Structure formats: structure tokens, C-alpha cells
Amino acid sequence: MGRQPCCDKLGVKKGPWTAEEDKKLVNFILTHGQCCWRAVPKLAGLRRCGKSCRLRWTNYLRPDLKRGLLNEAEEQLVIDLHASLGNRWSKIAARLPGRTDNEIKNHWNTHIKKKLIKMGIDPITHEHLQKQATTTPQETPCEVKIQQSVNVPEDGVSGNENGSSAAENSPSNEAQSIIEVNADGEEDPLVSYILSDTFLEDWSWNFPAVEDSYCDFGLSSTSSEDSAAWFMDCKDFGVDDFGLGNCIN
DNA sequence: AATGGCTCCAACCGCGAATGG
DNA sequence: GCCATTCGCGGTTGGAGCCAT
Predict the structure, then answer these.
(1) How many CB atoms sit inside 10 A of residue A93's CB?
(2) Helix pair A72-85, A141-149: axis angle to 10 deg
(3) Closest CA to A65 of A242, A207, A227, A221
(4) Looking only at Cα atoms, what is the longest distance across chain A?
(5) Among A153, A141, A195, A155, which residue's Cα sits nearest to residue A177?
(6) How many angstroms is C1' of C8 away from CA of A51?
(7) A113 DSSP β-pair partners
(8) Most buried one in A13, A94, A121, A177, CB count within 10 A?
(9) Mean per-residue pLDDT for A192-206?
């Protein structure tokens, strides 16, 4: 029967988004919240497919996004999580507030990968390249570090379920059951916390309506103005760009 | 100043998962 | 349980900007 295209190719714009399109999309989501993405372009007056709108929102327009390069701590966390989860960028991104899977994926491919290679570490297996060549049974310092700092999240994602990632990314299946410990054999509290569900549920970094898929963003009776003002503070564009000056003041 | 190669990132594509009738 | 539809994810690509020559 064939797969239906996500959008009819005719009349659907592709390529970089304009400020005007961004404005329309943001205005629509601020007003209506996230709903059926397929309907969004039509309702928002955009000549884009819903998929493109979702991507633009999640990767660029979302108000809770951090901008700029990942810092040292975030980078190390990505490395640790990648050792545990493999290329599950969305899972990794879920542990880094304000970062998107696309951003992390890009950063991995452009910075971290090279950095690891430079350090003599295979970015896929997280093993020392020399060790891979000789395949000695002893652990390398790199392995020890990864095993000491990486845990398998509680959601059961082991990085092995599709038969590729974990096999590629873990030195062995043992990694799946490794509890994060430091050199003294104690748990690393930071990594433990970040990998915990408690961290994900912490409202202090979550966008206010994140669990409601932003449906209430800007519409809550108590915080719409604060949310919108905060949103504008987070973006490069100004309040006036979205014609929201009246409601934010 | 010109230009060719490289880097980086926003955006696209295709697939599998999830959902609903 | 089956099928159609929608969503979300991960891999890949295009092109703008940067840098070396």
C-alpha cells in the first residue's frame, strides 16, 4: 500500500526557517500549546510539514533550551551516558536539561568524537584503541573510568536491546549492571542523581509545563506573563518580534 | 583578494514505535 | 488482531562561515 508521505510535497516549503515563520509557529504554540503536529502548519498558517514544525520547535524555538556549546561537565556526562546508552541521543538529552538530542548528536560527532580519538579512545566502544588491537582481557584506565561513572538508567534501557548499540558501545555486557562508583568504591553522587528519575522530575530545571507537552505554556492563570517574559529572555529575538509586547510588561 | 578545503549545525529523510479506530 | 495514521528517533546532508594557502 505504500507509506503516505508526511506531507504533500507540493507547496510545502523546505530549508531554513525565516523569522516570520518562527514567529508564526511560536505564536501558535504559545496560544494553543503543542497539539497534533500534522495540523499545526495549517492552523498556524505555515507552508511547512508538521514534522518540520516539530523539529523547529524542539530543536530551536523551545523556551527551555540552553544556547551555546556544552560545558565540560555536560560533555563528560554525554560521554558517560553514551558509554551506557549508545547512540540513544534522545535518552541522553533527557538527562541534560535544556539540551536537544540533535544538539548532543551534533556535538558528539563534531567535538567529542574527535576528542576521544585524539585521546586514543574508541568513541564507539569507549575502549582504548591500543587495547582493542591487542584485546587483552585486562581493563584499561578508560574502561575503569567509564565503568566507575556510568549506570544503566532505571527505565531499563540497557543499550543492548537492538543488538547494536550496547554491543558496540560497551566493552562487555557487564557494563549494564555496573553501578557508578568512584575510585574509592563509592557511588558518584552527581552521576547517580543525574541518572535518577528524581532528576528528571525536578521542576527546578524542567520547563514549567514540560510534562504537559507545553500545552499550558503561557496559558496558566498564574504564570503566563512570567513564562512569556522568561521565554523571551531566553531567546535571541525580542519580545516585539512576536508581537507579544502587550502581554509581557 | 581569491579560492579551495574544512568545520559545524540546522534541517531533512526514512524507519520503527505508538496509538486509535 | 489488523490496518492506517501520527509521532519520535537516529542517520545523513546541505550550505554558511571560517581558515589556510
Answers:
(1) 20
(2) 90
(3) A207
(4) 67
(5) A153
(6) 10
(7) none
(8) A121
(9) 56
C-alpha cell at A220: 496558566
- A64-67 long-range contacts, Cβ below 8 Å, gap at least 24? A64/A97, A64/A98, A64/A206, A64/A207, A64/A210, A64/A234, A65/A98, A65/A99, A65/A100, A65/A234, A66/A97, A66/A98, A66/A99, A67/A234, A67/A236
| Cα A191 to the center of its chain, rounded Å | 17
Q: What is the pLDDT of residues A88-143, one digit of tens each?
A: 999 999 988 889 999 999 999 888 988 888 888 888 888 877 766 665 444 444 44
pTM of the model: 0.67
Give the span between the Cα atoms of A16 and A6, in whole angstroms: 18
**Residue A6 is placed in which grid cell?**
508526511
Instruction: State how far the Cα of A7 lies from the Cα of A160, in Å rounded to an integer.
Output: 34
Strand partners, A121: A128
Distance in Å from B2's C1' to A110's CA comes to 28
For residues A15 and A29, the answer to whether their CB atoms sit within 8 Å is: no
User: What distances in angstroms separate CA A84 from CA A45, A127, A226, A240, A241, one per listed residue?
Assistant: 42, 13, 38, 44, 42
B strand bases under 7 Å from protein CB: 7-15
In whole angstroms, give the CA distance from residue A149 to residue A195: 11
Look up residue A126 and give its three cell numbers. 569507549
Q: Which residue is closest to C12 in terms of CA–C1' distance?
A: A106
Spell out the residues 6+ positions from residue A11 whose beta carbon is closer than 8 angstroms to its own: A47
